[in-house]
Amino acid sequence: MGDIKDLSKYDKKTLKKFMADMLLIRRFEEKCAQMYGLQKIGGFCHLYIGQEAVAVGSIGALDLKTDYVLTGYRDHAHALACGLSADSVMAELFGKETGCSRGKGGSMHLFDVEHNMLGGNGIVGGHIPVATGVAFKIRYNREKGVVLCFFGDGAIHQGAFHESLNMAKIWNLPILYICENNQYGMGTMYKRVSSVDDFSLMAASYGMQGKQIDGMDVLNVFDEVSATVNRIRNDNIPALLEIKTYRYKGHSMSDPAQYRTREELEEYKKLDPIVILKIDMMDNNLLTEDEFKEMDKQCKAKATESVTFAEQSAEPQESSLYEDVLV
Amino acid sequence: MADILVMLALSPTMETGTITGWRVKEGDEISSGDVICDVETDKASMEYEATSGGTVLKILLDQGSKAAVGQPIAIVGEKDEDIADILNQAKSAQTQEKKQEPKENKPESQHKTAQDKPQPAQSVVSEPQSAGRIKASPLAKKIAEQMGIDLASVAGSGPGGRIVKQDLERVGTQGVQHPRSGLPELKDESIPVSGKRAVIAQRLSESKLSAPHYYLKISACVDNLVSAREELKKSAGINVSYNAFLMAFATQAISRHPMINSSWHGDTIKKHRSVDIGIAVALDDGLITPVVRNCAQKGIIAINTELTELIAKARRGTLTPEEYTGATFTISSLGAFGIEEFTAIINPPASTILAVGAMEKRPVADSDSSISVRTMMTMTLSCDHRIIDGAVGAAFMQDLKRTVEYPVQSLY
Amino acid sequence: MPVIQYREALRQAIDEEMSRDERVFLMGEEVAQYNGAYKVSKGLYDKYSERRVIDTPITELGFTGIGIGAAMAGLRPIIEWMTFNFAILALDQVINNAAKMLYMSGGKLNIPVVFRGPNGPAEYLASQHSQALQTMFVHVPGLKVVAPATPYDAKGLLKSAIRDDNPVVFLEGELMYPWTGEVPAEEYLVPIGSADIKREGSDVSIITYSKPLKMVQEAAQALEQENISAEIVDLRSLRPLDEETIFKSVMKTNRAVIVDESWPVVSVASHVAYLISSRCFDYLDAPVELVTSQDVPMPYNHNLELAAQPSVDKIIKAVKKALYIQ
Questions:
Q1: A129 vs C144: CB contact, 8 Å cut-off?
Q2: pLDDT at position B101, please?
Q3: A-B interface: how many C-beta pairs under 8 angstroms?
Q4: Cβ pair B130:C244 closer than 8 A
Q5: Could you report the per-residue pLDDT of A34-85, keeping only the tens digit for each?
Q6: Contact A109/C109, CB-based, under 8 Å?
Q7: pTM score of the predicted model
Q8: Distance (Å, rounded) from C-alpha A61 to C-alpha B194?
């Protein structure tokens, strides 16, 4: 692997938390795939496997008492990273009453208001103005928070993205737009549909700072997002980050991802975010193989328990059909 | 901690899959997401990706085996892990899965009936207490009109007692008329049946349907009557109506044929002492028969005075029931309309009714076979055959004719 | 009682609610320094500064979404669409985010936002700028939709809309802004979801809302000369709909004419007609008549554009048809 990465600037607890969070997301989503295959989960189910470092590293840079997270439909990881329990997410995927959205949202509409995770949005790019509005509220109330708005390489061409960046800049809104470039907008390689290969350039059109960073190393994501968020907090300016990543699975469970080669996938798997952090931590004597196995075991157990919880939870009452249409 | 890998639905409709080949063998290290076998589904051959990683500890199904979705196919865990328990678990799952054909994940709610489903609140409006609004579908209203059925008399089987087509089909006896095709449709108007009209309809239908009517027609020369009336006008200054004359003449004739003044009561026949003669008066909304009582005791002037008053009251609508019921004989005249002759329906309890046509000049063959022009009037008596036999009625009419033609006789 | 313009009634409502609640702000194209395209927000920028009266770029989708996000995070935005014709660009935000957020979050996130601006045909504006689009919003569960026709109702309903915890679509009309009417000096609210009998009558119920109310009132006066007594039901709210008031009126008069300036196909009018035929079936003496705009885009030519819309004559004809006269 070459040089040993120096992790001395990181708190051991933080590193372990990143590892635990990524492992939980991985094991949880493997369960999702299995449960989808068993037809316990229906509809659209977009897995995040391979991208874990992005959600965990970015959200790890936030203080969720004042900061907010909004994302698209590939949202299981963001919800878990914000602190939503695996039980309530799995129950939501099963459509159960105990799900975080009472079984009415499903995979694409996870919310954790307590931890300022405001969705879970199904229309490509449709949440970008909404996230900008949350940042507007922070500025309006003269609060300290910052909004992380996650979206993919598919959403970046929507008008909603460009309209939002313009207004965020003219009103100095505290928002970090994070384009998780997992290389495929549904089944289309991003380069085929973009005027530029480097999305960070798009920030320049709106007089905003943009940067392209590697998203397979959780610590790199954490460092870059932390620095950017601090700048946003202090200087009252929005920013854009393109975080390069890769999803191992298809766009959704119904996508066999035949638009890419297995070789390409295997190449990226060598950069697996969990493996990278594991090696770095072990190199720095911050983790042993046994500790790692124990953590993994616990995360597997949590994922398995979440399935039991979801299976044992009640179906929503039919009367709930008419609830929450209006306040 | 070992994991069971189960057959997954690799297409949305897949229920079972055939393992066409294993890419790994027991003892191999695999990662989650690795392709470990190929599966032929209902649609295509698919790669099966492991949903967890580790060492392949056990392959449960050989190449070529079929597995239902959910059925264990392999066990993955740590090298040298004791898998006795999980193997039992997997085997019992194997057998269970076989029993559970087809899939058991249909939601329970599919079995519920539509009525079980809660509905959102609908706004409730209490229906106004509209007096006498009959609930009937537009179709039922149309059919009722065509069939001549009074909706008030029909019980509705629809919600809130709404009358619908089938309710009318139960009631109706006449066939439904179909509109003529090819002609512009002229909309019929429906008007509610007044109380008066309903009574007329009921009484006359009853009379016509229960009393076997027959008719006796006779024409009388009224030249003498006309001049007698003129005389009376000249001498007494009183304008006596022809109806009053006819009443007086009928009274004379009845006194000689008292059977005419009787009524049918099923097992008895009532012979009335008093000659109470009704006269049909047309009104805008029907007709009414004011009655001059006890005509035998009254002279022509008295009859005329009383008749004039009664007709005025009838037109004002102020007749009391005693003044328009119980006629024992009735006269109906349509002469004013130029009607030559007609037949009338008996007005119960009377057993006859006299229909009087117009007075008009006609060429008449006299007894000497000469033709002369005389003022003639045709009278038709409707008789209830249950009481009045042909000869009885005919004798009465013969007498009446003579009385009309020779009014002076009534003085005898 | 003071007599003021419809636009002034709206301005008063916004002003009063902004001074009452710090969380209320106004955002839209030219609402601040220009004082509003139709001068509804006149003076508000001077009074509340750029913090609370905010000019946006011409990006309907974007600033509508920002309003939704701000509402989701606890503010109470009033989003002005310069006209509803441009709001079509924002429909994704309104339908997919504002209307659905509460439901798909299992009741966790409500969106207290008001979307307002002129809707409906004006004059000489042709197809893209002269159209009644309420049906698109009324169709969507999770939204409230109101359409006041008088200054009094406009003020009372806008105040209620701003205080409502749900997204409210508030329909005004370009030609209605100069209309005048009595508005009390003291504070009042008009509740959302309540229709108003604007005229009592016994022979026919004319059900309408928004701009056509004036035509309906004229028609009712003309009909009075012919001894026809028309009752006018002003819906005021299109969602939720005050069904009870509609049904009571129709059960009384037994005949209904609905006047709606939007297109006739799957409209508010056709929905109300369905409700009447279903719930007042036994109280109808005639089929429900509709007076709507013609099923065509709006032409520029004045005679043609008038022919495309409801008129007093068309209303009178429909009433007579419902009464089987001629």
A1: no
A2: 46
A3: 58
A4: no
A5: 999 999 999 999 999 999 999 999 999 999 999 999 999 999 999 999 999 9
A6: no
A7: 0.73
A8: 89
C238-254 average pLDDT score: 97
Cβ within 8 Å of residue C221, ≥6 positions away? none
CA distance C237 to C207: 12
Interface test with B, best of C205, C243, C255, C282 (most B CBs within 10 A): C282
CA distances to A199, A212, A237 from A203, in Å:
8, 11, 12
* Ordered structural domains, chain C, with CATH: 3-182 (3.40.50.970), 196-322 (3.40.50.920)
Which chains form contacts with chain C, at 3 or more CB pairs under 8 Å?
A, B
The Cα C94–Cα C65 span in angstroms is 8
DSSP E strands in C105-229: the ranges are 114-118, 144-146, 168-172, 180-182, 196-199, 204-208
Taking alpha carbons only, the member of A208, A183, A206, A200 closest to residue A242 is A200
Just list the catalytic residues of C.
60, 129
ipTM: 0.92
Chains that touch B (3 or more CB pairs under 8 A): A, C
Nearest by CB: A133 against C72, C103, C109: C72
Low-confidence ranges of chain A (pLDDT < 50): 1
Average pLDDT for residues C196-219, to the nearest whole number?
98
Sorted by where each starts, the structural domains of chain A and their CATH numbers stand as 12-310 (3.40.50.970)
For chain B, which domains are there? 3-99 (2.40.50.100), 196-411 (3.30.559.10)
**Is the CB of A248 inside 8 Å of chain B's CB atoms?**
yes
The Cα C209–Cα C176 span in angstroms is 12
Read off the pLDDT of residues B140-195 as tens digits, 9 standing for 90 and up: 888 888 888 888 888 888 888 888 888 887 776 444 444 444 445 566 777 777 77
> Which residue has tokens 């409801």?
C310
Q: What is the three-class DSSP state of B75?
A: strand
